Amino acid sequence: MKVCVIGAGAAGLCAARHLAANSHKFELSVFEKSSDIGGTWIYTDNVGLDDSGLPVHSSMYKNLRTNLPKEIMSFPDFPVMKGEHKSCVSHQTVLNYLKDYARRFNLRQYIELNTLVESVQLVPSTEQCHSEKWKVKVRNIKSRETKEEVFDAIIVCNGHYFEPYIPSIPGISNFHGQIIHSHKYRTAEAFSGKTVILLGASSSGIDIAFELSGHASQVYLSHNKERLANERNCLGFNEVRGVEKYEDKAFVLRDGERIGNVDVLLLCTGYQFVYPFLEASCDIRVDDNYVSPLYKHLINVEHPTMCLLGVPMLVVPFPLFHVQIQYFLALLKEEARLPSKAVMLEDAKLKTPKKRHAHKLSSAQWAYNDELASAGNFEGLPPYYRLGYEAWRQKAMSNLKHYKQFNLVVEADKLSVRIAE
């Protein structure tokens, strides 16, 4: 089978590694638009457009350190992330790890860099060919040459941390300060002496708020989640309710508070799922980050020789990719079978009050991973992934400002973990 992988970030490399391990069954091509592997982990000072005139893909900021420990970030078949003694590591350490992973499994030979996927189109089955196929058009960014190839299966690994979600705020057109999304945030020094409102309190919003608090004159973290500050957490910045509107030269919050003289609105509001290369014949729809119809957040129900790797959110991503790709390959090798289309469509239905929460798994990720491993008849994740995740989450909740200074220790038996200074 000829298999196309779109993207050579962490998910694409993981897909390539498992396809390459089955080279007697699969012929593999990986198309990557950047000039190197690593996806979002490739840091650049640049924002806006890159040297090729394409939007900068990476959302890394200069001093970012992972909010998960490296001991559970790594792939199970390549567990050691070298370079730092601390558990929460820099983006450069993660990028080096991905390059080591590619070298370990000899993946570069399959990857065409500087190659943009322009379209993926379904080729329906015919009397002569009883299976659906996929016509993929790509363009070499350097030479501008295009080519088309036909594949038996498609694995979409283009990531989902590059297309900013910009919320609609009534009256915001009257704000004459700077509006920037965290996708373009790089260093705190650029905000020295300014009053900044950060909108959104997920990982990046909290992280950047701490970073800015040492440089900006005033930092407000605006959100409607449960309050972060408590007797265990002293934040060092102002925590306020979500922004309702901009009116009379002030941001009006949901509780009626007004904040004036603001220099910067920094949107930490997340990202949108986009698949601009998937033509209508692929039958994939995205509505407010609800991608459908996907069986197990993965398989295109209408055309099961296509999968979208890495759609679930609030997960430990690399191990999840490791499980997802093995399940998809088990289907392609006919070592596993899908349920009926009716069952798959039922699974793909929206099950959350808000569409944008459809693929958020959080603590449900472990049952999800186990289900895929069981259905695909392959070994599931070692227990220390779940144990480490739960222990680390508890530490983060109890020491939000300093938890990244601790270390996660996986005991020799791989069955227990502990947090160490």
Task: Report on this structure.
With 421 residues, the protein is α/β, with parallel strands linked by helices. It has eight helices and 22 strands. A hairpin with a 4-residue loop joins strand 13 and strand 14. Helix 1 packs parallel to helix 5. The longest helix has 16 residues. It is globular. The relative contact order is 0.13.
Low-confidence sequence ranges: none
Q: What is the share of helical residues?
A: 10-25%
Query: What are the secondary-structure elements, in order, as H or E?
Result: EHEHHEEEEEEEHEEEEEEEEEEEHHHHEE
Tally of DSSP β-strands: 22
| Spatial extent as radius of gyration | 22 Å
Q: What distance separates the N and C termini?
A: 50 Å
How much of the sequence is in beta strands?
A: 15-25%
Overall geometry comes to globular
Average pLDDT, all residues: 96
